[in-house]
Design brief:
- This protein is an alpha+beta fold and 130 residues long.
- It has one domain (3-13, 27-126).
- The protein is built from 4 helices and 6 strands.
- It has helices at residues 50-54, 63-74, 90-102, 112-120; strands at residues 3-12, 31-39, 55-56, 59-60, 77-88, 124-126.
- The strands form 2 sheets. It has a 4-stranded mixed beta sheet.
- Strand 3 and strand 4 (59-60) form a beta hairpin.
- The longest helix is centred in the last third of the chain and has 13 residues, at 90-102.
- The two termini are 12 Å apart.
């Protein structure tokens, strides 16, 4: 099983100056955009509901909170983030669907398809194993 949440992240480098520095270093450009893949936890393991807790209809649900979450993980100042997809293989998606089905009440949905769409939108991309 293999899956990752894929985000486009814009981060900023901000030089820090020390009291004895004559002038802080300059960084140009100081903004960069990159792709960040967060490995998806195995359904049922701690953290597997990241999509429920952080996404809504295929978008980041609480942008400031999620930028802080990524900043802590990446060690840079994250200024923008957008969700691109859950990149997964069939085995992971099957396990995810089963885990959601077993805990459907936690997703406030009538069925698995509704639950996944509610949080991930149409951003599930199934790939063959490489």
């Amino acid at each position: 099983m293999d899956a990752a949440y894929v985000f486009t992240v814009t981060f900023e480098l901000g030089p820090t100056s020390k009291p004895d520095d004559p002038a802080p270093p300059r960084v140009e450009p100081n903004r960069f955009e990159t792709t960040v893949e967060l490995p998806a936890a195995v359904p049922g393991d701690p953290g597997w509901k990241l999509f429920r807790d952080r996404l809504w209809r295929g978008e980041v649900g609480d942008d400031p909170s999620f930028r802080r979450f990524l900043a802590d993980r990446l060690g840079v100042d994250v200024v923008a983030v957008s969700f691109r997809e859950l990149r997964t293989d069939e085995a992971y998606l099957s396990a995810l669907r089963s885990a959601v089905r077993e805990d459907l009440a936690a997703f406030n949905a009538a069925d698995v398809d509704e639950a996944l769409h509610k949080y991930l939108g149409s951003s599930i991309h199934v790939r063959e194993r490489e």
